[in-house]
Design goal:
The complex is a heterodimer of chains A (about 325) and B (about 260).
Chain A (H helix, E strand, L loop, with lengths): L4 E13 L5 E13 L3 E5 L6 H9 L6 E6 L2 E2 L9 E4 L11 H9 L6 H14 L15 H12 L6 E5 L7 H16 L3 E6 L2 H7 L2 E6 L2 E7 H6 L3 E8 L13 E6 L2 E6 L2 H13 L3 E9 L2 H9 L3 E2 L4 E2 L2
Parallel strand pairs in A: 3-8, 3-9, 6-7, 7-8
Antiparallel strand pairs in A: 1-2, 1-4, 4-5, 9-10, 11-13, 11-14, 12-13, 15-16
Helix pairs in contact in A: 2-3
Chain B lengths: L1 H15 L2 H23 L4 H34 L3 H5 L5 H34 L8 H22 L4 H27 L3 H13 L9 H5 L6 H28 L4
Helix pairs in contact in B: 1-5, 2-3, 2-5, 3-5, 3-6, 3-7, 5-6, 5-10, 6-7, 6-10, 7-8
Classes of the chains: A alpha/beta (about 325), B mainly alpha (about 260).
Amino acid sequence: MSRPVAVKIEGLSKTFKTGWGKKYKVLSDLSLDINENEIFGYLGANGAGKTTTFKLILGLIHADQGEVSFWGKPASDYKNRSLLGYLPENPYFYSYLTAFESLDFYASLFDIDPKTKSERIKELLSLVGLEHAKDLQLRKFSRGMLQRVGVAQALINDPKLLILDEPMSGLDPMGRKNMRDIILKCREQGKTIIFSTHIISDVEAICDRASIIAKGELKEIIDIDQIMESQDNFWEIVCQGKDFKMPSIAENDFKKIVSGNRVILTTSSKDSAYILVDEVKRQNLNLISFGPRRKNLEEIYIKSTGQYIESDHKEITR
Amino acid sequence: MNKIAAIALNTFRESIRDRIFYSLLFFAVVLLAFSMVLGNLTLAEPVKIIKDFGLGSISIVGTLIAIFVGIGMVYKEMEKKTIYVILSKPIARWQFLIGKYCGLSITIIIEVVVMTVLLFILCYQYVPQIPLSLFYAIIPIYFELQLILAVAFLFSTFSTSFLSGMFTLSVFIIGHLTKDLKMLAQSGDDVVFQKFANGLYYFFPNLENLNFKARVVHNLGVSLPEILFSLLYSALYTAVILLLAIFIFERRDIP
C-alpha cells in the first residue's frame, strides 16, 4: 500500500551568482516525492546540492524555477512552516542564552500555549539528555551538546515533518547512536523525516528510501529494503598497490576503485573474477581479499555518480 | 504580534548583554562629567554649558549606539548563522525585521533615558529645578536616533557590518550638512553645484530639522507645531526606510 505524499518537490532549480556575472548551477530540475511517515535519506557528496535543497524547501533561498509543497500546502507560505522542524548542519544559536531560554525563545515563534510549552521543553531536554545543563549558557556547550539543542529546537512544535541536515556529522559513536534512536522514535510517532548525509551506513541502517544527488542532479531513488533483500551478487577483489593495470580484454566488465594504497576491483561474473585474481598475481601485487558480495547502496552510489568512497570511513569524497 | 515581541525581547536581551552598549554608556557618563568641569571653568552660566554639552553627548553617544547595534542587526545573524533556525520557523521575514528593530529601539530608549536622568541630576546641582524644557530637544534627538537606526538597519540587510557603518555615518554627516550646503550653493552662481546640493538636500534626510539643542539651551523659543512637524517628518522617513529594508530583505537569499 502506498503512503500519501508528505513533501512534493517539482522541477526545482537554483543558480547562484559567483560575482562578476558568473553563474553556478547548484540544482537542476529536481523532482521528488517524499512519503508520509518514512525516513528518507538524502545522499550526496559535500557540495552536491543537499543543503541548497533544504534551504529551498524552507524558503531561505528563492528558487529560479519549481515548487515545493507539504501535504499539498505551498512551502512559499511561511505559515506552513509550522508543520516542520529543521536542524541545520552545525547548528548555531545565540550563545548568550541558556539551553532553556533558547528552547523557550524558539517555542515562542509558534502558537503554543504556555502550559504545553513548558511541558514540551522539559520533555525535550530529557529526550536529548540536557536536563543537567539547561541553565548553562550555550557558549559553554560542546559541539555535540549544541547538536542536541538543535534536535530539541527542531522538535519544539511537535512537527509532522523533520528536516535534518547532516545530523550525524561531528558526533561521537554514542552520539550517532542516540541520533539514530531519536530519528527512529520520531518515525514511530508518525513523523516524516528527511535527512541528508554523506555517510552510506547511516542510510542503510535507518532509511526506508534514499535518493542520490550529485552535482545538483537527482541520480537515483532507492528502496533500501529492496537492496537488502536483493540476490544481485557481484565479486570483489581487493589488492594492495595502486599501480594495478587493468587487463585490456576485460575493461568493460571490471570496475576499479583506488582508495589510498588499495585497489578495489568489482566484476559481475565468477569467471571474470578469477581472471582478475590471476592478473593480480601476475603483476606481483598483494591480494587482500577475494569473494562474492551482495550488491549494496555503496555500489549503486558509485555506479550512478562515478564517485568513489573511502572504504575506511565509508565517506563519499569527490 | 507575539512573534514580533519574542524577537524584540531576544534582540533587546542580546544588546544589553553586549559589551559595546556598556562601554558607550560609560563614555556618556564621562562626557557628562566633563561637561561639569567645563561648566565650572566658564565665566558664563555653567548650567547652560552643561545643558549644551549634555544634549550633545546624548546625541553623539546615541548615534554611535544606533550605528553599532544597527549595522549588525541582520548581517551578524547571517554571519553567525543564527538566522537559519529562526527563519525556518513560521515567522515572516518582515516580522523578524520589525522585531529586531523594536528590540534595538528599546535599547536606544533606555540609553536616552539613562543619560537624560544623569543630565537632569547634573543640572539640578546648579539650579534646583527639573529642566523640563530640555525635552523639546531630547525628544527630537530620540526621533533622529530612530531614523539613524533605520538607516543602519537598511544597509545591514544587504552589506557587511563595516560598509554599513561607513554608509550610515555618511548619511548622518550629510544629513546634518545638506541644509547649509543648499544655502551655500544658492548664494553662488554655480548651477551644477546648486543642482548637486539640491539633490543631496532632497534625497538625504534633513537631520538639522531635528536639531533644537541650541535654541532650547539658550531659550530662543521653539514652537510646538514646528517640533511636531519635525517629528512627523522623521517618523515618516523612518517608516519609508524600514519598508525599503523589508522590500530588500524579503527578496534576498540567505546564503
